[in-house]
Amino acid sequence: MGEQTRQPPGSTTLRVPRDFIAAAETAILHSNPERFAFLYRLLWRLRSEPHLLKIASDPDIRRLEAMGKSVRRDIHKMRAFVRFRQIGDSPDERYVAWFEPDHYIVERNAPFFVRRFTGMRWAILTPHACADWDGERLAIGPGARKDDAPLEDTSEALWRTYYWNIFNPARLKVKAMQAEMPKKYWRNLPEASLIPDLIAGADEAAKEMIARMPSTPAPHHAKMQAKHWPVPKTPRQDEDGADARSIAQARKAAEHCRRCPLWREATQTVFGEGPESARIVFVGEQPGDQEDIAGKPFVGPAGKVFDDILEEADLDRAITYVTNAVKHFKFEPRGKRRIHSKPNAGEVQACRWWLDKELSLIKPDLVVALGATAAQSLLGKPVAITRMRGEVIERDDGLRIFLTIHPSFILRIREPEEKQAERERFLKDIKAVKALMA
Fold this sequence. Notes:
Blueprint: H1 18-27, H2 35-48, H3 59-81, E1 85-87, E2 94-98, H4 106-116, E3 122-125, E4 129-133, E5 138-142, H5 155-166, H6 174-180, H7 195-200, H8 202-211, H9 221-228, H10 247-254, E6 280-284, H11 289-294, H12 301-312, E7 320-324, E8 331-334, E9 337-340, H13 345-362, E10 366-370, H14 372-379, H15 385-388, E11 392-394, E12 400-404, H16 408-411, H17 416-436
Parallel strand pairs: 2-3, 6-7, 6-10, 10-12
Antiparallel strand pairs: 1-2, 3-4, 4-5, 8-9, 11-12
Helix pairs in contact: 1-3, 13-14
């Protein structure tokens, strides 16, 4: 198999297929203590059976393939289910994870984590071996005990909240989930503690989700669409909004917007509303189902939450203007329903022209970004809302941007206590906005 130099008298060179080398390199990572004897037996058989690997019905070949499949699956599961926990604070922060693989895969798998988390200092502890990356050098050491791993960190509570809220009960398939995420991995996953309750409440949660689904378009939808979207054309220069000197003129020009393809399916453009002298501009993501039909922003369920919070915060609506980063409803048809679909970066960028026009006409003292899409439109780059929430960022042009969640996030929380807590946080954010206007 290696380079042959001087051969003993009567010896012969052993040649094996390249496929055997690759298969053996994987199978040797298997935890079966007889793996070396098994691979030696295969090697010995290949001397007299050079085409052995092509005999799929051979018991040894089936076993070799099963061992490789088990190792590859273990490698995949390690990549999927490793969860790092933070130790210390910057500049001394490190991230440590505990994982229990079935096979001896740590050394083989470590380069993947180096590529994925190059900028972190991390360690992965397992009973078989440990991998440590200090930012420059990867070291493989002896195994560890679970007690050597850190306890839960503060980010795991946030992760569980996120996992709870993205769980879709309508798509739950318990057997498929457990096949992809076997129970043996649950004990090391922070979100696993939620799974039994999520499964138990899936039927009721699905019913609630269906009840909150957007409605079908109104019967006059097609007539309205024909009115707002006549034969497709390229707007004339005098109707593309460039010459607009007021919000009313900009709104009129936006009725014929063709800057991205979203106009083709939307009922109408949903432009911003409020006084042109507003001191605060609230920017959401995009119109929803009800806004698309009504032609007005923030009139759906999220808008109701928004109105109630502003009233509780005693924020004068006479000094506020509400709009969206994207002016058309993007959705996916599902039966007779239209399901909200997040606008992509190109659509956000195309519609930024209108948002910039609104801001240039209003000249507000403060803009409130409601959610990540609004923040990306206003700042020109992705923003981690959960981490930067409540911060005020000043743009190069001097405009101040306050970051917070979109009120629709509150509606997606099913647990009453968590929903109320998030509502209180949003109310606190709006009160902070009001204080900035004092």
